[in-house]
């Protein structure tokens, strides 16, 4: 495993991303915590929009895991909801975590 971050290649999806703004970047350490960088301005003033985006992301992730592992999307989504519920019930990290605020022009 490399020590440098390896970005997901978005070049094939450039047309799909046209006009979009990045609002979330996430990094996971093997056997360790994950780090998240959120730009709320990209979504709008209402935090509920982030919740909607997370549910959409969960559905996309379920499709990806299903395809990668040869399981149904529904089965993978159920497992993702189990993870959501477990983390909401007993968070693995105490808050507050370090917070990076987007620049004014972002």
**Low-confidence region ranges:** none
Order of helices and strands: HEEHH
- CA distance, first residue to last residue: 32 Å
The chain-level structural class is mainly alpha
The biggest sheet amounts to: 2 strands, antiparallel
Quaternary organization: single chain
Strand order of the largest sheet: 1-2
Shape: globular
Q: What's the average pLDDT?
A: 87
Number of helices: 3
Outline the structure in words.
With 106 residues, the protein is mainly α. It has one domain (11-89). The protein is 41% helix and 9% strand. The chain has helices at residues 14-17, 48-69, 73-89, and strands spanning 24-28, 34-38. It has a two-stranded antiparallel sheet with strand order 1-2.
What's a concise summary of this model?
The protein is mainly alpha-helical. The chain has three helices and two strands.
């Amino acid at each position: 495993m490399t020590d440098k971050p390896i970005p997901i290649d978005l070049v094939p999806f450039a047309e799909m991303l046209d006009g979009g703004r990045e609002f979330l970047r996430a990094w996971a350490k093997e056997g360790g915590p994950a780090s998240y960088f959120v730009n709320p301005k990209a979504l709008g003033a209402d935090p509920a929009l982030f919740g909607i985006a997370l549910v959409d992301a969960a559905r996309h992730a379920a499709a990806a895991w299903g395809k990668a592992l040869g399981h149904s999307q529904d089965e993978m989504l159920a497992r993702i909801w189990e993870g959501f519920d477990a983390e909401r019930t007993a968070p693995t990290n105490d808050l507050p975590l370090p917070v990076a605020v987007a620049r004014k022009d972002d």
